[in-house]
C-alpha cells in the first residue's frame, strides 16, 4: 500500500494517467464505432463498404491526436494569451451557422458545411469559454464576492453571447454542457454559493421555455415521463436502447454481435453507442467505460488541487465538467434516467468536431499536468535515461562485431 501511495503522489502521475485514459477511450471508441456503424455504412455508401464511417472516425482520431500532441507542449502562459482570440474565433464560426453555409439537423442549426467537411462551431466555443473563463475569473479571484465583478465581463458579455448564439440555433443539449462548464468554473473560482441558486432558477426557466416551444422536445419529455409509449414514434429509440442493454446482460453478446444495430436502434454509432457497448460487452463493458471517465475526472481534480495557478485550477475544472457532465447526460439518456437530449459520448461516439475538440482540450490538461511541480524535471530525467540506454545498444553491437 505504501508503494502505491508513493506512486500516486509522484509528480508524473497525472500526466501518465491522462495519457492512458485518453488513449484507452479513443481506441475503445474506434473499435465500438466500427462495430456499431457497419450496417449503416453498408446501407449509406454506394460502394457497399462496411468501414466508411469507421475510416472517417479513424482520420478524425489521428487529427485529434496531432492536436493533443501540439497542445500538450504549449506552456501555460501561451494558453492565457490564446484564450480570448480562441473564443472570438469560435464565436465568429458560430455566426456562420446563420449564413448559407449553415446546416440544420432535426430543427437544430448548429453546423456549417465547408465543401465535404461539416463543422460544429459550438464545440470550439466550449474550449474558448474554458480558457477565457479561467483567465477572467482567475484574474478576479479576490473580487468574486461582489456581484458586479462576477457579472462583468465574464457573465456579460462572454457567457451571455456564447450561450445566446447556440440557443438561437436551438441546440439545447450543447447549451446545457456550456452552462455546466460555466458553473464548474465559477465554483472552482470561489464564487459565493448564494449566486448559484439564482443562476439555477434562471437556467430552469430558459430550459422550460425552449422545451414547451418545441414539439420535438415535448415529445421526448412525454416519452421520458411515460405518457408516450408508441413503439413506432419517439419512444422507439429509447425503447430499443433499453432492449440492447437488456440483451447484453452481464457479459454481452460478443463484439460485433449486436442485433439492435440492424436498423432497429437509431444513431447506434453516435448518441446511443453506449447501448451497443452494453449489448455487445454487457454490464462489464459499461462499467469499464464508467471507470475510465471516473479516472479522467480524478486526473482533472488532481490538477486543480495541486496547482497554485488560478487559471489552471479554473480551466481544469471547466474541462472536467465539460467531459464528465456530457458523459453523464449521454449515458443518462440511454439508460432512461434523463430524456433523450442528443449529445455524444465524449471520445467514444462518432463525430469529428466533438472528438477533435475534446482531444484538444485534453491536450490542454496534459500541458497543465506537465507544469505540475517536479513533473517536467522528472520527464526530462526519464527521457535522458532512455536516450543513454539507446546509445549503449549500438556501441555494444559494434564491439561485438569487432570481436568477430
Structural account:
The protein has about 400 residues and is mostly helical. About 70% of the residues lie in helices and about 5% in strands. Strands 1-2-3 form a 3-stranded antiparallel beta sheet, with no helix packed on it. Helix 2 (about 15-45) packs antiparallel against helix 3, helix 5 (about 120-140) packs antiparallel against helix 6 (about 145-170) and helix 11 (about 275-305) runs antiparallel to helix 12 (about 310-335). The protein is globular, with a radius of gyration of 23 Å. It starts with a helix and ends with a helix.
For this entry, give a set of tags:
three-stranded antiparallel beta sheet, globular, glycosyltransferase, peptidoglycan synthesis, membrane, transferase, cell cycle
Describe, in short, the structure shown.
This protein has 404 residues and is mainly alpha-helical. The protein has 14 helices and three strands.
The coarse silhouette is globular
The arrangement of helices and strands along the chain is: HHHHEEEHHHHHHHHHH
Mean pLDDT score: 90
Enumerate how many helices there are, as a single number: 14
Uncertain stretches = none
SS class: mainly alpha
**Domain count:** 1
Largest sheet: 3 strands, antiparallel
Rounded to the nearest angstrom, the distance between the terminal CA atoms is: 50 Å
Strand order within the widest beta sheet: 1-2-3
Pfam family, one: FTSW_RODA_SPOVE
Keywords: Cell cycle, Cell division, Cell membrane, Cell shape, Cell wall biogenesis/degradation, Glycosyltransferase, Membrane, Peptidoglycan synthesis, Transferase, Transmembrane, Transmembrane helix
Subcellular location: Cell membrane
EC number: 2.4.99.28
